[in-house]
Amino acid sequence: MKRRDLLRTGAATGLALSLPPAAAPPVSAAPASSGRKAASDLVIADFEGTDWNGWTVTGDAFGNGPVHGGQQLLSMDVRGYRGDGIASSERAGDGPTGTITSPPFTVQRRYISYGVAGGDYEYVTCLNLLVDGQVVRTATGRTSDTFKQGSWDVAEFAGRRAQLQIVDTATGDWGHVLVDHIVQTDEPETPPLSTQPLYRETWRPQVHFTARQWAMDRLEPGQRQEGWLNDLNGLVYYEGEYHLFAQRWNKCWIHAVSPDLVHWTELRPAFFEESLGSGVQSGSIVIDYRNTSGLSPNPATPPMVAFWSRNDNRSQCLSYSLDKGRTWKYYPGNPILTMAERDPKVFRYEPGGHWVMFLYGDGAYHVLTSPDLLHWTRTGNTIPNSFECPDFFELPLDGNAATKKWVLVQGNGDYTTGRFDGQRFTEETSRQRSDAGLNFYATQTWNNTETGDGRRIQAAWMRDGAYPGMPFNQQVTIPCELKLRTIGGKPRLVRTPVKELDLLRRSQKQWYGTLRPGSPRTLSSARGEFRITAEVDVSAQATLRFDVFGVPILVTRQTVDAGSGPQPLAGPVTSLDVVIDRTSIEVFANDGEVSISRCYLPSGGAITLGASGGNAELRPVVTQTLASAWR
Q1: Residue 38 in contact with residue 203, Cβ under 8 Å?
Q2: 288 part of the active site
């Protein structure tokens, strides 16, 4: 009996640590308009025969041939197929696994159309297109045994040799795949879903990082699906590259690299969960320069070591890379630690010559130490009332290296400062928000920047944004430099956009003047990406209002509100820095004393500036247009 409970997943077998590199998705899936007559269709497989007709079979999921007969298929609850036969891995239930791979063929039409049904496990229960042995297109069912028609634009592979592969490596609920009627065609019955150039889609941010789809063709992807992004983890700087890792909801670690924190190149995911449903949750990365772990056979090539938690919220594991994060191996001794719960934050404590781990569990951070990253000792010290995804680092106070403070940032953005002796953290301040935005979560900073320019740079998941009809979901804040300043007599964490954001500056204009009630000023009447900076003086009873494509930003004498409620500052608001992207806005007041990150969808067509209740002086307001970070 089939169970439809997606939360009850079975193990998978043969799932690779990372997918092989592949060519980029097509820049357009719109039908050609050359005016020429479409060539006749070429059937690759209709599964009407009694055997696999030259397809190579592995495992026992697919049997000796297609499944035939309306009565048999009806008994399997299969609908929407064509003819009398289909390829099915469910003939003996969801338990068996295996693959079938077609003979090579030449790509001769713009599209390949297909019917697919069964489980919705990407790369696990699927139909793949292989070129040079690499997965370049893939499709799954939608947790239904009614066939869904789809197609791939394969124009970029014209004239090349390819193969089809039907894969089932899942053994639990919905661990099967059904495929029917695969055809090369110039006129697909169902065109591809993604029809816009990669990184140029309507609601794709142009300044903020988002994840791409590599081989899937799915709009509004959800958790664990290609194109989705959530928690930041494993941020690290190494030999001139900033590495950004993020969750695809415990399915894999998304991976991108940048030389400048602005222009990102997304690589194939660093590593996936070991088996379907086992999970690879958030964590951190260190560079083991002394090779204390012994994971590198050559001490001159230090391992890049990633720490993460399985879905059981007890198994703490690691993966490592010896080639600057391009390929990864699971540590064969996993788990290195069995302890509740997740999100290990690991760093080197040089005064003690040991490694430290902050591990979230039971509402607290637990402190552990290790000489070699592999064997961990519990110190018995905890930080109570804590919340997921810890980040921990040291910063000078007011730029004075002699008065450094340790900063602990929780997953929800709350932070506190204090002292740390290598085993115990003593909080000296109350907890405060590092960013007041409702979309700011799972913040992390880049580790190992002391081998570069030494800045402490932070990014966070901008959760809960909406991107209707897009082949991606969720985004990352712009990287911000963190500093500790004494404000109101206490250490305060301040956030400002990294200086490299200036690399995107394209043009600018400025305006000096007094804004009076009833006399708004238009800063831009066109959509685009902007950075607006202003020196301001808001009179006691006045409110300065930025209207950003229908989203208000309200500034009074001593507060800023960008959908988060009024956020107080220690003194009058004197400076503003607003970064505007297609679906996000980030506001920084008084050099980062207050920051507010938020997602939005435009409802207006201009950026305007106005005042009410009194005057506001602007000296000046500078409007910059920004180029796309996607080269």
Answers
A1: no
A2: no
pLDDT in tens, 298-356: 989 999 999 999 999 999 999 999 999 999 999 999 999 999 999 999 999 999 999 99
Q: Are 259 and 266 in contact (CB under 8 A)?
A: no
Rounded (to 5) percent helix, strand, coil in the chain: 5, 45, 50
Token pair 């889609």 in the structure block, residue: 201
The Cα 312–Cα 503 span in angstroms is 43
Q: Kindly write down the DSSP assignment for every residue of 383-395, as one continuous string.
A: E-S--SS-EEEEE
Beta strand pairing call for 111-118 and 425-427: unpaired
Amino acid letter for position 48 = E
| Contacting residues for 57 by C-beta, under 8 A, at least 6 apart | 98, 99, 100
Tally of residues, the chain: 631
Asked if 97 contacts 177 with a C-beta cutoff of 8 angstroms, the reply is no
- Are 306 and 283 spatial neighbours (Cβ–Cβ below 8 Å)? yes
**Rg from Cα positions in the chain:** 27
- The secondary element (H helix, E strand) that includes residue 170 is none
Q: Rounded to whole angstroms, how far apart are CA atoms 131 and 104?
A: 9
CB 623 within 8 A of CB 508: yes
Q: Look at residue 35 in the predicted model and tell me its pLDDT.
A: 54
Token reading at 472: 């991606």
Residue type, 422: G
Cβ neighbours, 10 Å, residue 556: 22
Closest CA to 486 of 588, 586, 571, 393: 571
Q: Please count the CA atoms within 13 angstroms of the CA of 334 that sit on its side-chain side.
A: 21
Give 209's contacts (C-beta < 8 A, 6+ positions apart).
244, 256, 264, 459, 475, 476
Query: Which positions ≥6 away from 610 have C-beta within 8 Å?
Result: 515, 517, 519, 520, 521, 544, 545, 547
> Is the model's pLDDT at 34 over the cut of 70?
no
Catalytic residue from among 120, 153, 168, 231: 231
Residue 502: name the closest of 276, 261, 265 by CA: 261
Are the beta carbons of 594 and 560 closer than 8 angstroms?
yes
Mean pLDDT (whole number) for 567-591: 98
Give the max Cα distance, the chain. Answer: 84
* Average pLDDT value for the chain: 94
Average pLDDT over residues 166-177: 97
